[in-house]
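Incident log entry.

Two folding requests arrived from the same account within the same minute. Monitoring flagged them as a possible duplicate submission, but the sequences differ. Recording both here for audit purposes.

Request one:
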Amino acid sequence: MDFFVDSLSSAILLIGSLDPELFEIIGVSLKVSSTSTLIASLVGIPAGFLITFREFRGKALLITVLNTLLALPTVVVGLFVYAFISRRGIFGYLDLLYTQEAMIIGQVILIIPIVTTFTISAVSRIDERYRETALTLGANALMTAWVVIREARFGLVASVIMAFGRVIAEVGISMMLGGNAKGFTRNMTTAMALEYDKGEFVLSVALGIVLLTVSFGMNIIFHYFQGKTRV
C-alpha cells in the first residue's frame, strides 16, 4: 500500500512540475489521435450519410460488417497495416513504418467504422419530414444534407468523441506501427507499457492519471451529446 501511495504522490508531483518528457509524450498522443479522428470523421460522416440515404444491393450486409468492426482488435489492425508498409510490403518503399504517419493510418482504419456507424445511427433518427420539406422547398443535395446535419449534430459530435476516446487509449497499433521511439512515436499507452517493463512506475502512473482524465472527460462529453440526441 505504501508503494502505491508513494508512486501516486510522486506522479502527481511529476505532473505538477510540468516535466518536459511527460508532456512530450502527451503531445504525441494528442497530435496523433486528433489527426486520426479528424481524418476518420472526414471519411466516416459522409459515408454514413450515403449509406443511410442511398439504396443499393448489400446495404444491410455492409451495415452488419461495420457493426462487427466496432470490436476490431487493435493488434489485428496493426498486423494488417504492418504487412503493407513493412520493407517487404507493397508500400514498403514509402518508409512509413515506425512513424507517426503509420500510427495515424492504423488508427484511422480502427475508428472509421465507429464514426460511420454512429453517423448512420444519428442520421436515421432524424424525422424524414425534415429532408422531404427541404427538397420540396427547392433545396439541392448539399443544402438538404446541411439541414440533416443541423438536426443530427449532437449525434455526429458524439460519434467523433467516441472515436477519439477509442484511439487515445489504444496500445496495439501504436506499439506495432510506431515502435515506441522516444521523442517521436512514444505516446501515453506505449510509454506506460515501457515504464512498467522497466519497473519504473512514477512516469507510468503519471501518464495513467492523464490518460484516465482525458478518457473520463471524453466520456462525460460523449454521454452529454448522446443525451441530447434523445431529447
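Request two (distinct sequence, not a duplicate):
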Amino acid sequence: MKSYIDYLVEAEGPRIPHPEDSVFSGSAQALKYVQALQGIVTNPRSVSIKWDGAIALYFGRDSQGQFFISDKYMYPKNVLAKNPNEWIQYDSSRGANRADLYQKLNQIWPGLEAAVGQTTGVFKGDLMFVGALQPVQGYYIFKPVTVEYRIPVDSDLGKLIAGRRGLIVVHEYNNSVFNGQGIKSNEQIAVIPADMNIKFKLKNPANLSAAATKLLSTYGQKLDVFLHGLSKTARDALQTYLVHFKTGRTQAQLAEWLKTEVSNKQYNLLIGQNQDGYLIENRQMLDILFKIWQTIGNFKDNLAQQLERQVQGFEQYVNGNPQGEGFVFPSSIGLIKLVQRAGFSAAHFSGFNAKK
C-alpha cells in the first residue's frame, strides 16, 4: 500500500478526489471506489480526521540534517525551505505574496524545529493556529478556514496547547501514520496526531453499498459507452455542475447552467439549438450517471456522519452546526476522503466566495 505522501505527489496532485467523482472516469473506476468505501467499513481503525488547517506543511530534517518547512506544492518540487525567507523567494518567483503567512512561519519556526530535535525524516501536517490563545467561556477557540474548533480548557488537549504559540496536527511521519514518534514536547509549539488516538467504529450501511454496486453492475457497460461519447471538457462540465448544485452554488437546471459555462460549440453539441444534442438524445443515461454519482455520495456521507459522532476531546462547528471537514482513509487505490459536500463543502465555498 502506498503512503499518504506518495499519493500526494503523483499525477492526481495534492488534492484528494471525492469518491463519487470517480464515475466520470468510467464504471470500473467507480466500482473501485465503492469497494474502497466498503473497505473502510471493515477497517475503520485506519481512519484519520481531516483537519481544516490554515495550510498543509511538510517539515523535518533532510538527508543532510537541515531543518526545513515547505507546503504541499513546494515539497513535491523538492523546494525544502530552510528559513522563512526562502518561502518569500519561492513565492516571488511565481508572482505570489503570502505576507501574513511569512509572519506566522517566523513565529512557529523555532518551536517546530525544537519539536523535531535531531529526528531525521519528513512529517506531514496542518497548521491550526499561531499565537497564544485566550480562553473564552471555558474553551480555546480558533477557526483556521471554515471549521471552528472549540477545545475545553480543562481537557487533555486544552492543557497541551495552553500557552503554546501554535498547534500542528500531524498525519504522517516517514510515510507511516503518525502517533507521536520523533517529536519532543516543548513550551512553544504543540504537535498532536491527526487521529487523536480515537478508535473509530462503523456499522455497515449495506443498502447504500448494494445500491451503488447494483447500479454499476446493471448500467456499467452502457454508462461507459455514454461517457465515451463525451469530450473531457463535457465530462468536466457535468461534474462541475453536480458539485455546484450539491454545494448550493447554483439552483439552475443543467441546460440553463451550461449556457454560461461552456462554449457555444459545446452547448450545441450537448443540448442543441433544437433540443437535439447528445445529452438530450441520451437523457436516460445522463440521469443514470447523475444517480450513480449521488448514490456513491450517499454511501460516503453515511460513513462520514457515523464517524463525526465519535470525535471526542474537542468540538467542531460549520456555520454553527456540529461538523468537521471530514475524514481520510488510506486504501489500495489511494487516499479516500469522506467530506460531506452539502455541509462542509457548501460552507467552505460560500465563505471563499464571500471573501473574493
